[in-house]
Write a structure and sequence with these properties.
It is built from 13 helices and 24 strands. It has 604 residues and is an alpha+beta fold. It is found in: Membrane. Residues 588-604 have a biased composition (Low complexity).
Length: 604
């Protein structure tokens, strides 16, 4: 009721209504409306597209992409080393399920990482396409015409000459073309521009990022990685049944594996043996034989080192790990050989203290019962004289200076006949009983060539010696070459955009009414640089050959000067010099036309 009365009073009082309307025009608050407000669906889509293709959002997405790649560098990835992933999960049982849900073990193929680089891909495309067409338009257009008042340019030079104005302009046009300027002569002035490679560098940089993302996306969709551990003297064919693990992608599966065969002949390792860097790695080399396809006659020799893979077909063979494999021979109670071979032990520290297990599933019968034998222990490349009770067996040096094998023995059911998969590097002791010797758990410390007689008549174990093993990563990534080329071109484009300066030069030669020619030079740089001043000075010097500057002449006496100072009379008419000075002052005070940009969207 109160609002209705107020509205009537306002309508009835013209002075009050005018005052309120004036106040409303001064306010910046949005006008109230009873109807719906908004820009509509099309307007919102246009606004979101402009935000996505803006430089600010592109930089934010690029920053987010770099942040998203950090977990992939800190957390083991399934596509690189499946064993490390399983080991990490076993050591961090609390957070491992959370990491699984967040896809932190498959960062580069995760949904959130893919969303970031797809948005960045679209953002770059939305920036590059219109900017490229704009640059093409700039290249097709002429350099901007000379402003009316060249004295307002940052760099300026002028002099008078007796040369013809048209000849001076033609000479300036020729000199600028010789300096690789895009020059145009029109309207009694020469307009020239240079430094277009700066914008080319910007476009190359953005296109290179586009190629980098494209190569990364291709590699994510059409790549595959596998792992294989080989002991010296062993070989394998690159098939899914002989790989230790394999991770494929949408367009690369087990049927797409490159056919080849690789055999590890010898592995060489060297370590620093003195000084402050003792124990540091100096050399890891795997010497292999290999052939592509299925023809052994094409056998070749190769060498694989750290960061120097061997390329076989479309795959690369990377050396990613090494260790020792003790060679064990086991005789059962009847004296039959039930196990012999080199078993890889896995390093646990920098000195290659290695742990491993030996599963003898075909041991046979003992006391009329079917039984199996399990051995677990440590391999120490350089063993101490005595073990520390707190730390247990530990190697002193990664090299094989004094190798020792420490073993424990178990008998019972290994669980290998259950059909369930098992980890070959772990021993499940649930259905096993540790052998006893003199009332203590049976264990032994052996050097190469020694024999351990197992207690309770279970036979013997012989430590024959040891071999080296090496683990390899077999990687098929077709987009790596594109990504590398994109990275190199991005650096080249960035260098060009930073160090190439875009600049403009104008030359105007005008015939003076009293005879002679006025020559003016002016320059404008897109960024602050001394290069434009140096180029203008060099151009002025070269132009002196065609338009030499006149020497300064003494000022002439006024025509109506009196014979003596006492009889001087003021002149009614101003002299020519004052008229010229007044005209120049008027021209300087007049608003000068700004430099016309090469295109309407330019920010210069």
């Amino acid at each position: 009721m109160t609002n209705t009365t107020t509205d009537r009073e306002r309508v009835g009082d013209p002075a009050q209504r005018a005052t309120e309307e004036a106040a409303e025009r001064l306010t910046t608050a949005p006008a109230e409306s009873d109807g719906p407000t908004g820009i509509g669906v099309v307007g919102w889509l246009r606004w979101m597209w402009r935000q996505l293709t803006s430089m600010r959002v592109a930089l934010i997405l690029l920053f987010l992409l770099s942040l998203a790649a950090i977990p992939g560098s800190l957390i083991p990835q399934n596509g690189q080393n499946q064993f490390k992933v399983e080991t990490w999960k076993a050591q961090h049982t609390t957070v491992a399920p959370i990491y699984e849900k967040l896809q932190l073990f498959d960062v580069y193929s995760s949904v959130w990482f893919s969303a970031i680089y797809i948005l960045l891909f679209v953002s770059l495309a939305g920036c590059i396409v219109p900017r490229t067409w704009q640059f093409v338009g700039v290249l097709r257009s002429r350099p901007p015409a000379a402003p009316r008042n060249l004295t307002r340019m940052p760099v300026y030079a002028a002099w008078r000459t007796d040369a013809d104005a048209a000849a001076v302009n033609a000479a300036a046009h020729r000199l600028l073309r010789g300096r690789r300027f895009r020059a145009h002569l029109d309207g009694g002035a020469v307009a020239a521009e240079k430094g277009y490679l700066r914008e080319v560098g910007n476009l190359v940089f953005h296109l290179s990022l586009f190629a980098l993302l494209g190569g990364f996306a291709w590699a994510s969709l059409a790549s595959g990685t596998g792992g294989k551990l080989l002991v010296e003297g062993e070989g394998y064919s690159n098939t899914i049944t002989q790989l230790d693990d394999f991770t494929g992608t949408r367009f690369y599966g087990t049927e797409d594996l490159d056919p080849f065969y690789v055999k590890l002949n010898r592995f060489t390792s060297k370590f620093q043996n003195k000084g402050s860097q003792i124990g540091s790695a100096r050399q890891f080399t795997a010497n292999v034989d290999y052939y592509e396809g299925s023809d052994p006659a094409k056998l070749k020799q190769g060498k694989i080192e750290v960061n120097h893979p061997l390329e076989i077909g479309g795959s690369k063979f990377f050396l990613i790990g090494h260790g020792y494999a003790p060679k064990i021979t086991v005789h059962n109670a009847a004296g039959d050989i039930v196990y012999t071979g080199a078993t890889p032990f896995l390093p646990q520290d920098g000195n290659l203290t290695s742990t491993g297990v030996i599963k003898v599933s075909d041991y046979g019968d003992k006391d009329g019962k079917r039984t199996q034998l399990g051995l677990s222990g440590f391999f120490l490349p350089t063993a101490p004289a005595a073990f520390d009770r707190n730390t247990g067996p530990r190697s002193l040096f990664p090299g094989d200076a004094d190798p020792v094998l420490v073993l424990n023995a178990y008998a019972g059911d290994l669980g290998t006949d259950s059909g369930l998969p098992q980890n070959i590097y772990q021993l499940n002791t649930k259905n096993l009983t540790q052998l006893q010797q003199d009332g203590q758990p049976a264990k032994v410390r052996m050097k190469p060539g020694e024999v351990w007689e197992l207690p309770d008549g279970y036979g013997s174990v012989t430590f024959e010696g040891y071999k080296h093993w090496a683990s390899f990563n077999v990687s098929h990534r077709p987009g790596n070459a594109i990504a590398l080329a994109g990275a190199v071109l991005a650096i080249a484009g960035l260098i060009g955009s930073l160090f190439i300066q875009r600049r403009r030069i104008w030359v105007r030669a005008v015939a003076l009414p009293g005879g002679g020619t006025q020559v003016e030079l002016a320059g404008l740089g897109r960024s602050e640089s001394a290069k434009i001043a140096e180029e203008l000075a060099a151009l002025a010097v070269d132009l002196q050959d065609d338009a030499p500057a006149l020497d300064d002449e003494p000022e002439s006496e006024p025509e109506n000067e009196p014979a003596s100072d006492d009889e001087s009379e003021p002149d009614d008419e101003p002299d020519d010099e004052s008229e010229n000075g007044s005209a120049e002052a008027d021209e300087a005070s007049a608003p000068a036309e700004s430099a016309v940009p090469a295109d309407q969207n330019s920010k210069e």
